[in-house]
C-alpha cells in the first residue's frame, strides 16, 4: 500500500512538471507566431502622366509629279541636270517649237483678215442703214449687210481663240515642272518623238521637304483611346497631341519633330488598321520615300496615374496581375490588379491600387496573405 502511494505521487509530480513546462512555452510560441516580418515598401502616389504610343510607318513624298508632254513633237534638248533640285515652273525639256510658231503666225494673220472684214462689213451696214431710211435699198439688202457685219465679228472671235490655242501649244513646247523638288533620271533623250499625254513619263519630280510619314494603328487601339478621352480618363491636349517623334531604321531619333495631320476615317479590311499621316521637315534629305520608321505619338495626359514598380507585381494561377500591400492593421493584403501598359520599369495600374497604398517590393518571399509585417521604406525603389 505504501509502495502504491509512492508511485502515485511520482506520476502526479511528473504531470505537474509537464503542465508547468507547457504553460511556460505557450506564450513564447504565441509571441513567435505573431512576430512581424520586416518588408520593404513603396508608397504609391498619383501623378499626371503623358501617354505615348509607338507606331510603325513608311515615309511618303509630300508631292510627286510625273512629267509628260502636252503636245506632240521632237525633243530638241533636255534643260536640267538629272538628280538635281528643280523649281516650280522651271523648263525641263524643249520640244521643237517650229510647228507651233507657224500656228501662232497663221492665227495672227487670220485675226488681221477678220479685222479688215469687220471694217468693210461695218461701213456697208452703216450705209445701208441710212439708205433704208430713205427707201433707197430694200430691207433684205440691209439685213444681208448687217448679217455680214456680225459674221465678220464672229470670225474675229474665232481667229482670236485659235491664236490663244496656238500660243498655249507653243508654251507647252517648253515642258515645265509643276512642283519644286528633286528630279530623277530622264527617260528620253534629244531627238525622241513624244506625244501628248503619253503613258511613259519623261521624268519624275519628287518633293522631299516637307515629307510625310504614314503610320498604322489598329482600330481597336484607336477605339479604346477615343473612349478614354470621352470618359475623361485622358485629357487630350491638342498642342501636345499633335507632336510626333521619329525613330530611324538604325534606332536613332530623328532630329526634327513632326506634326500629326489627320487620320483616315475608314478601316483597312485586310489589316484592321487605320492610317495616320504625320508631316516632318526634311531639309537634310535624310528621310526618303519607302523608308521604314517608327513614330512616337502622344495619346493624351492621364491626370491621376498610378505607377507601380514591376518588381512588386506578380501573377496568380489565372494569369492575373497581383500585388501585396500593407493594410491599415499592418498585415499583408493581396490585390488583383488591372494594368494598361509598361512605362519604363513600372506598370500603369488602372484598377486595384490607389494613391497612398504601401506596395511591398522587398521580402515578398517571406510573407503570406494576412501575415503581420513591419513596413520600412525600400531605399532602392524608383517611382519613375
From TrEMBL:
Domain Multidrug resistance protein MdtA-like alpha-helical hairpin: 105-173
Residue ranges of every copy of the Multidrug resistance protein MdtA-like beta-barrel domain listed in the record: 210-300
Keyword terms: Signal
Keyword hit for Signal: yes
Membrane topology note: Lipid-anchor
Cited InterPro entries: MdtA-like_b-barrel (IPR058626), MdtA-like_BSH (IPR058625), MdtA-like_C (IPR058627), MdtA-like_HH (IPR058624), RND_pump_MFP (IPR006143)
Alphabetized NCBIfam families for the sequence: RND_mfp
Name of protein: Efflux RND transporter periplasmic adaptor subunit
Amino acid at each position: 500500500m505504501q509502495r502504491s502511494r509512492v508511485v502515485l505521487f511520482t506520476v502526479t509530480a511528473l504531470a505537474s512538471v509537464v503542465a508547468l513546462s507547457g504553460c511556460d512555452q505557450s506564450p513564447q510560441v504565441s509571441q513567435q507566431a505573431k512576430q512581424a516580418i520586416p518588408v520593404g515598401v513603396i508608397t504609391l502616389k498619383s501623378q499626371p502622366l503623358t501617354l505615348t504610343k509607338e507606331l510603325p510607318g513608311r515615309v511618303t513624298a509630300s508631292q510627286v509629279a510625273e512629267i509628260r508632254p502636252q503636245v506632240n513633237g521632237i525633243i530638241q534638248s533636255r534643260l536640267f541636270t538629272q538628280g538635281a533640285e528643280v523649281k516650280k515652273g522651271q523648263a525641263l525639256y524643249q520640244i521643237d517649237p517650229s510647228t507651233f510658231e507657224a500656228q501662232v503666225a497663221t492665227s495672227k494673220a487670220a485675226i488681221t483678215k477678220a479685222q479688215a472684214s469687220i471694217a468693210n462689213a461695218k461701213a456697208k451696214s452703216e450705209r445701208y442703214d441710212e439708205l433704208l431710211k430713205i427707201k433707197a435699198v430694200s430691207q433684205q439688202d440691209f439685213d444681208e449687210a448687217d448679217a455680214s457685219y456680225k459674221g465678220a465679228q464672229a470670225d474675229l472671235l474665232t481667229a482670236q481663240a485659235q491664236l490663244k490655242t496656238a500660243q498655249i501649244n507653243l508654251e507647252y513646247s517648253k515642258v515645265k515642272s509643276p512642283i519644286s523638288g528633286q528630279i530623277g533620271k530622264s527617260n528620253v533623250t534629244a531627238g525622241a518623238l513624244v506625244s501628248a499625254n503619253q503613258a511613259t513619263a519623261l521624268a519624275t519630280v519628287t518633293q522631299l521637304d516637307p515629307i510625310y510619314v504614314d503610320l498604322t494603328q489598329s482600330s481597336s487601339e484607336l477605339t479604346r483611346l477615343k473612349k478614354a478621352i470621352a470618359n475623361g480618363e485622358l485629357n487630350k491636349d491638342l498642342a501636345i497631341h499633335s507632336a510626333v517623334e521619329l525613330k530611324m531604321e538604325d534606332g536613332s531619333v530623328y532630329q526634327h519633330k513632326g506634326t500629326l495631320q489627320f487620320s483616315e476615317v475608314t478601316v483597312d479590311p485586310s489589316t484592321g488598321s487605320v492610317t495616320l499621316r504625320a508631316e516632318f521637315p526634311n531639309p537634310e534629305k535624310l528621310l526618303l520615300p519607302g523608308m521604314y520608321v517608327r513614330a512616337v505619338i502622344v495619346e493624351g495626359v492621364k491626370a491621376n496615374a498610378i505607377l507601380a514598380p514591376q518588381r512588386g507585381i506578380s501573377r496568380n494561377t489565372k494569369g492575373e496581375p497581383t500585388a501585396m500591400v500593407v493594410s491599415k492593421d499592418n498585415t499583408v493584403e493581396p490585390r488583383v490588379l488591372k494594368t494598361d501598359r509598361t512605362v519604363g520599369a513600372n506598370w500603369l495600374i488602372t484598377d486595384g491600387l490607389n494613391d497612398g497604398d504601401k506596395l511591398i517590393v522587398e521580402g515578398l518571399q517571406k510573407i503570406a496573405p494576412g501575415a503581420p509585417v513591419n513596413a520600412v521604406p525600400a531605399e532602392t525603389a524608383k517611382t519613375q
